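Side project, low priority. Logging it here so it doesn't get lost.
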Amino acid sequence: MEESSKVMQEQRMNLFVTLWAKRRILLIVTAAGLVVSTLIAFLMTPLYRSTAIVFPAATSTVSFSEQRNAKASSMDFGEEEQAEQLIQILQSSKVRDKVVQQFDLWKHYDIDPSDANKHFKLVKEYNSHILFVRTRYGSIQIDVLDKDPQLAADMANKIVDLIDTVKNEMVMERTVPAFQINKRKKEMLEAERDAILKQLDSLAGLGVVPLESRANLFQAYVETKSAEDKADYKERIDINLKYGALFDGLEYERNEKIMKLSDFNQSYEQAESDANTQFNHKFIVERAVVADKKDKPKRLIIMLLSTFGTFVFMVFLLLIQDKIKELRKLS
Protein backbone atom coordinates (compact mmCIF):
# COMPACT_ATOMS: atom_id res chain seq x y z
CA MET A 1 0.00 0.00 0.00
CA GLU A 2 2.82 2.37 0.90
CA GLU A 3 4.67 1.49 -2.31
CA SER A 4 1.64 2.31 -4.50
CA SER A 5 1.23 5.60 -2.65
CA LYS A 6 4.85 6.47 -3.30
CA VAL A 7 4.47 5.59 -6.98
CA MET A 8 1.44 7.89 -7.29
CA GLN A 9 3.33 10.71 -5.60
CA GLU A 10 6.25 10.26 -7.96
CA GLN A 11 3.91 10.33 -10.99
CA ARG A 12 2.27 13.51 -9.77
CA MET A 13 5.66 15.08 -9.16
CA ASN A 14 6.83 14.07 -12.64
CA LEU A 15 3.67 15.56 -14.14
CA PHE A 16 4.18 18.83 -12.29
CA VAL A 17 7.85 18.96 -13.25
CA THR A 18 7.04 18.30 -16.92
CA LEU A 19 4.35 20.99 -17.02
CA TRP A 20 6.55 23.47 -15.20
CA ALA A 21 9.39 22.84 -17.61
CA LYS A 22 7.03 23.41 -20.54
CA ARG A 23 5.17 26.29 -18.91
CA ARG A 24 6.22 28.83 -21.51
CA ILE A 25 4.91 26.94 -24.56
CA LEU A 26 1.83 25.92 -22.56
CA LEU A 27 1.04 29.55 -21.70
CA ILE A 28 1.74 30.76 -25.24
CA VAL A 29 -0.53 28.19 -26.91
CA THR A 30 -3.29 28.70 -24.30
CA ALA A 31 -3.11 32.47 -24.79
CA ALA A 32 -3.24 31.94 -28.57
CA GLY A 33 -6.33 29.76 -28.07
CA LEU A 34 -7.93 32.53 -26.02
CA VAL A 35 -7.19 35.14 -28.70
CA VAL A 36 -8.47 32.94 -31.54
CA SER A 37 -11.64 31.94 -29.65
CA THR A 38 -12.27 35.60 -28.79
CA LEU A 39 -11.97 36.62 -32.44
CA ILE A 40 -14.24 33.78 -33.56
CA ALA A 41 -16.80 34.57 -30.83
CA PHE A 42 -17.01 38.23 -31.82
CA LEU A 43 -17.14 37.42 -35.55
CA MET A 44 -20.13 35.09 -35.11
CA THR A 45 -23.47 36.58 -36.16
CA PRO A 46 -25.68 37.22 -33.12
CA LEU A 47 -29.03 35.45 -33.18
CA TYR A 48 -32.21 36.62 -31.44
CA ARG A 49 -34.82 34.21 -30.10
CA SER A 50 -38.59 34.77 -30.24
CA THR A 51 -40.86 32.27 -28.55
CA ALA A 52 -44.57 31.50 -28.91
CA ILE A 53 -46.48 28.97 -26.81
CA VAL A 54 -49.70 27.23 -27.80
CA PHE A 55 -51.88 24.44 -26.42
CA PRO A 56 -53.56 21.99 -28.84
CA ALA A 57 -57.34 21.83 -28.73
CA ALA A 58 -58.94 18.56 -27.63
CA THR A 59 -61.29 18.47 -30.60
CA SER A 60 -61.48 19.96 -34.07
CA THR A 61 -65.18 19.57 -34.68
CA VAL A 62 -68.62 20.43 -33.32
CA SER A 63 -70.56 17.28 -32.46
CA PHE A 64 -74.28 17.01 -33.25
CA SER A 65 -74.66 13.74 -31.33
CA GLU A 66 -76.57 13.66 -28.05
CA GLN A 67 -74.11 11.03 -26.81
CA ARG A 68 -71.21 13.43 -27.29
CA ASN A 69 -68.16 12.56 -25.23
CA ALA A 70 -67.55 15.13 -22.52
CA LYS A 71 -63.83 15.23 -23.38
CA ALA A 72 -64.68 16.30 -26.92
CA SER A 73 -65.74 19.74 -25.77
CA SER A 74 -64.35 22.61 -27.81
CA MET A 75 -63.27 24.22 -24.53
CA ASP A 76 -60.95 21.37 -23.52
CA PHE A 77 -57.18 21.47 -23.88
CA GLY A 78 -55.55 18.65 -25.82
CA GLU A 79 -53.47 15.97 -24.17
CA GLU A 80 -50.25 14.18 -25.16
CA GLU A 81 -51.69 12.64 -28.33
CA GLN A 82 -52.97 15.96 -29.66
CA ALA A 83 -49.67 17.65 -28.77
CA GLU A 84 -47.66 15.05 -30.71
CA GLN A 85 -50.00 15.42 -33.70
CA LEU A 86 -49.58 19.19 -33.59
CA ILE A 87 -45.78 18.89 -33.57
CA GLN A 88 -45.95 16.63 -36.62
CA ILE A 89 -48.02 19.26 -38.43
CA LEU A 90 -45.62 22.04 -37.43
CA GLN A 91 -42.67 20.02 -38.72
CA SER A 92 -44.41 19.19 -42.00
CA SER A 93 -43.41 20.54 -45.39
CA LYS A 94 -46.85 22.19 -45.67
CA VAL A 95 -45.96 24.65 -42.89
CA ARG A 96 -42.31 24.97 -43.96
CA ASP A 97 -43.16 25.78 -47.58
CA LYS A 98 -45.59 28.50 -46.55
CA VAL A 99 -43.06 30.08 -44.18
CA VAL A 100 -40.30 29.91 -46.81
CA GLN A 101 -42.53 31.57 -49.38
CA GLN A 102 -43.91 34.20 -47.01
CA PHE A 103 -40.48 35.38 -45.78
CA ASP A 104 -38.38 34.53 -48.87
CA LEU A 105 -36.02 32.35 -46.83
CA TRP A 106 -34.09 31.30 -49.96
CA LYS A 107 -32.69 34.80 -50.11
CA HIS A 108 -32.58 35.33 -46.35
CA TYR A 109 -30.43 32.22 -45.81
CA ASP A 110 -28.26 33.05 -48.85
CA ILE A 111 -29.10 29.85 -50.73
CA ASP A 112 -28.46 29.86 -54.47
CA PRO A 113 -31.63 28.74 -56.33
CA SER A 114 -29.44 27.05 -58.94
CA ASP A 115 -27.57 24.98 -56.32
CA ALA A 116 -28.07 21.24 -56.82
CA ASN A 117 -28.40 20.78 -53.03
CA LYS A 118 -30.57 23.82 -52.43
CA HIS A 119 -33.45 21.91 -50.78
CA PHE A 120 -31.09 20.07 -48.44
CA LYS A 121 -29.42 23.34 -47.43
CA LEU A 122 -32.75 25.09 -46.96
CA VAL A 123 -34.15 22.35 -44.71
CA LYS A 124 -30.91 22.29 -42.71
CA GLU A 125 -30.99 26.07 -42.17
CA TYR A 126 -34.72 26.01 -41.40
CA ASN A 127 -34.41 23.22 -38.81
CA SER A 128 -31.43 24.91 -37.16
CA HIS A 129 -33.32 28.21 -36.79
CA ILE A 130 -36.87 27.00 -36.05
CA LEU A 131 -37.55 24.56 -33.22
CA PHE A 132 -40.74 22.91 -31.90
CA VAL A 133 -40.70 21.40 -28.41
CA ARG A 134 -43.44 19.84 -26.29
CA THR A 135 -43.16 21.16 -22.76
CA ARG A 136 -43.80 19.16 -19.60
CA TYR A 137 -47.15 20.97 -19.27
CA GLY A 138 -48.41 19.58 -22.59
CA SER A 139 -48.05 22.82 -24.53
CA ILE A 140 -45.99 23.39 -27.69
CA GLN A 141 -43.13 25.89 -27.60
CA ILE A 142 -42.21 27.46 -30.94
CA ASP A 143 -38.72 28.99 -30.97
CA VAL A 144 -37.40 31.03 -33.91
CA LEU A 145 -33.75 32.15 -34.02
CA ASP A 146 -32.69 34.82 -36.47
CA LYS A 147 -30.22 37.66 -36.87
CA ASP A 148 -33.19 40.01 -37.36
CA PRO A 149 -35.22 40.14 -34.10
CA GLN A 150 -38.31 41.56 -35.82
CA LEU A 151 -38.24 38.82 -38.45
CA ALA A 152 -37.86 36.15 -35.75
CA ALA A 153 -41.01 37.41 -33.98
CA ASP A 154 -42.95 37.69 -37.24
CA MET A 155 -42.01 34.16 -38.27
CA ALA A 156 -42.99 32.68 -34.90
CA ASN A 157 -46.40 34.39 -34.98
CA LYS A 158 -46.94 33.38 -38.60
CA ILE A 159 -46.27 29.74 -37.71
CA VAL A 160 -48.86 30.02 -34.91
CA ASP A 161 -51.42 31.31 -37.44
CA LEU A 162 -50.51 28.57 -39.94
CA ILE A 163 -51.56 25.85 -37.47
CA ASP A 164 -55.23 26.48 -38.26
CA THR A 165 -54.64 27.11 -41.96
CA VAL A 166 -52.69 23.92 -42.60
CA LYS A 167 -54.76 21.65 -40.36
CA ASN A 168 -58.01 22.91 -41.88
CA GLU A 169 -56.62 22.19 -45.35
CA MET A 170 -55.69 18.67 -44.26
CA VAL A 171 -59.08 18.08 -42.64
CA MET A 172 -61.00 19.40 -45.64
CA GLU A 173 -59.21 16.95 -47.93
CA ARG A 174 -61.30 14.29 -46.17
CA THR A 175 -64.39 16.13 -44.94
CA VAL A 176 -65.36 17.78 -48.25
CA PRO A 177 -65.62 14.47 -50.18
CA ALA A 178 -67.50 12.95 -47.20
CA PHE A 179 -69.93 15.87 -47.25
CA GLN A 180 -70.46 15.51 -51.00
CA ILE A 181 -71.33 11.84 -50.51
CA ASN A 182 -73.76 12.71 -47.70
CA LYS A 183 -75.27 15.47 -49.82
CA ARG A 184 -75.87 13.12 -52.76
CA LYS A 185 -77.38 10.54 -50.41
CA LYS A 186 -79.72 13.15 -48.89
CA GLU A 187 -80.79 14.40 -52.31
CA MET A 188 -81.48 10.81 -53.39
CA LEU A 189 -83.63 10.15 -50.32
CA GLU A 190 -85.53 13.41 -50.85
CA ALA A 191 -86.09 12.59 -54.52
CA GLU A 192 -87.42 9.13 -53.63
CA ARG A 193 -89.71 10.63 -50.98
CA ASP A 194 -90.99 13.29 -53.39
CA ALA A 195 -91.67 10.65 -56.06
CA ILE A 196 -93.74 8.64 -53.58
CA LEU A 197 -95.63 11.76 -52.48
CA LYS A 198 -96.37 12.57 -56.12
CA GLN A 199 -97.81 9.08 -56.68
CA LEU A 200 -99.91 9.39 -53.52
CA ASP A 201 -101.25 12.74 -54.70
CA SER A 202 -102.19 11.21 -58.05
CA LEU A 203 -104.05 8.34 -56.35
CA ALA A 204 -105.73 10.77 -53.96
CA GLY A 205 -106.89 12.74 -57.01
CA LEU A 206 -108.60 9.57 -58.26
CA GLY A 207 -110.43 9.25 -54.95
CA VAL A 208 -108.23 6.75 -53.15
CA VAL A 209 -108.29 7.32 -49.40
CA PRO A 210 -106.19 5.93 -46.53
CA LEU A 211 -107.07 2.53 -45.08
CA GLU A 212 -108.80 3.91 -41.96
CA SER A 213 -111.10 6.03 -44.15
CA ARG A 214 -112.22 3.20 -46.44
CA ALA A 215 -114.49 1.65 -43.82
CA ASN A 216 -116.45 4.89 -43.82
CA LEU A 217 -117.08 4.48 -47.57
CA PHE A 218 -118.66 1.05 -47.06
CA GLN A 219 -120.74 2.33 -44.14
CA ALA A 220 -121.89 5.35 -46.13
CA TYR A 221 -122.78 3.08 -49.09
CA VAL A 222 -124.96 0.91 -46.84
CA GLU A 223 -126.64 3.82 -45.08
CA THR A 224 -127.39 6.02 -48.08
CA LYS A 225 -130.92 5.84 -49.56
CA SER A 226 -130.31 7.79 -52.72
CA ALA A 227 -129.58 5.71 -55.83
CA GLU A 228 -127.40 8.47 -57.15
CA ASP A 229 -125.35 8.54 -53.95
CA LYS A 230 -125.13 4.75 -53.95
CA ALA A 231 -123.70 4.84 -57.49
CA ASP A 232 -121.17 7.50 -56.43
CA TYR A 233 -120.08 5.53 -53.36
CA LYS A 234 -119.96 2.34 -55.45
CA GLU A 235 -117.60 4.00 -57.92
CA ARG A 236 -115.37 5.31 -55.14
CA ILE A 237 -115.32 1.90 -53.44
CA ASP A 238 -114.31 0.21 -56.70
CA ILE A 239 -111.46 2.69 -57.17
CA ASN A 240 -110.25 2.06 -53.59
CA LEU A 241 -110.49 -1.68 -54.07
CA LYS A 242 -108.42 -1.39 -57.23
CA TYR A 243 -105.73 1.00 -55.97
CA GLY A 244 -106.03 0.66 -52.20
CA ALA A 245 -103.22 -1.89 -51.83
CA LEU A 246 -100.91 0.27 -53.95
CA PHE A 247 -101.87 3.33 -51.89
CA ASP A 248 -101.14 1.49 -48.62
CA GLY A 249 -97.77 0.29 -49.91
CA LEU A 250 -96.82 3.80 -51.00
CA GLU A 251 -97.86 5.19 -47.63
CA TYR A 252 -95.64 2.64 -45.88
CA GLU A 253 -92.70 3.52 -48.15
CA ARG A 254 -93.32 7.22 -47.58
CA ASN A 255 -93.21 6.81 -43.81
CA GLU A 256 -90.04 4.71 -44.06
CA LYS A 257 -88.35 7.33 -46.27
CA ILE A 258 -89.36 10.15 -43.92
CA MET A 259 -87.97 8.28 -40.89
CA LYS A 260 -84.78 7.37 -42.73
CA LEU A 261 -84.34 10.96 -43.90
CA SER A 262 -84.93 12.25 -40.38
CA ASP A 263 -82.27 9.91 -38.98
CA PHE A 264 -79.87 10.77 -41.82
CA ASN A 265 -80.17 14.52 -41.21
CA GLN A 266 -77.89 14.28 -38.15
CA SER A 267 -75.15 12.64 -40.19
CA TYR A 268 -75.65 15.20 -42.96
CA GLU A 269 -75.48 18.18 -40.56
CA GLN A 270 -72.29 16.76 -38.99
CA ALA A 271 -70.67 16.30 -42.41
CA GLU A 272 -71.77 19.79 -43.52
CA SER A 273 -70.33 21.35 -40.37
CA ASP A 274 -67.02 19.50 -40.71
CA ALA A 275 -66.66 20.45 -44.38
CA ASN A 276 -67.66 24.11 -44.22
CA THR A 277 -66.44 25.35 -40.84
CA GLN A 278 -62.93 26.71 -40.36
CA PHE A 279 -62.01 25.50 -36.88
CA ASN A 280 -59.48 26.89 -34.43
CA HIS A 281 -57.16 24.04 -33.46
CA LYS A 282 -55.11 25.69 -30.73
CA PHE A 283 -55.17 27.91 -27.66
CA ILE A 284 -52.59 30.69 -27.83
CA VAL A 285 -50.87 31.02 -24.46
CA GLU A 286 -48.23 33.51 -25.57
CA ARG A 287 -47.48 35.22 -28.85
CA ALA A 288 -43.91 35.97 -29.86
CA VAL A 289 -42.48 39.40 -29.16
CA VAL A 290 -39.38 41.12 -30.56
CA ALA A 291 -36.32 40.12 -28.53
CA ASP A 292 -34.23 42.99 -27.13
CA LYS A 293 -31.22 40.82 -26.24
CA LYS A 294 -29.31 38.30 -28.33
CA ASP A 295 -29.64 34.62 -27.49
CA LYS A 296 -26.56 33.32 -29.31
CA PRO A 297 -23.59 33.16 -29.30
CA LYS A 298 -22.65 33.04 -25.60
CA ARG A 299 -19.25 34.65 -26.17
CA LEU A 300 -17.88 34.27 -22.66
CA ILE A 301 -18.76 30.56 -22.57
CA ILE A 302 -17.17 30.03 -25.99
CA MET A 303 -13.99 31.78 -24.89
CA LEU A 304 -13.73 29.89 -21.59
CA LEU A 305 -14.45 26.48 -23.09
CA SER A 306 -12.10 27.02 -26.03
CA THR A 307 -9.29 28.26 -23.78
CA PHE A 308 -9.75 25.40 -21.32
CA GLY A 309 -9.90 22.90 -24.18
CA THR A 310 -6.68 24.30 -25.66
CA PHE A 311 -4.95 24.04 -22.27
CA VAL A 312 -6.06 20.43 -21.70
CA PHE A 313 -5.10 19.45 -25.26
CA MET A 314 -1.62 20.94 -24.84
CA VAL A 315 -1.15 19.16 -21.48
CA PHE A 316 -1.90 15.80 -23.09
CA LEU A 317 0.27 16.64 -26.08
CA LEU A 318 3.26 17.57 -23.88
CA LEU A 319 2.84 14.46 -21.73
CA ILE A 320 2.72 12.24 -24.81
CA GLN A 321 5.79 13.99 -26.20
CA ASP A 322 7.65 13.47 -22.91
CA LYS A 323 6.61 9.80 -22.81
CA ILE A 324 7.86 9.25 -26.35
CA LYS A 325 11.26 10.69 -25.37
CA GLU A 326 11.46 8.30 -22.40
CA LEU A 327 10.66 5.32 -24.60
CA ARG A 328 13.34 6.32 -27.10
CA LYS A 329 15.95 6.50 -24.33
CA LEU A 330 15.01 3.05 -23.09
CA SER A 331 15.21 1.58 -26.59
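Brief comment: Residues 67-72 have pLDDT under 50 and may be disordered.
Revisit when time allows.
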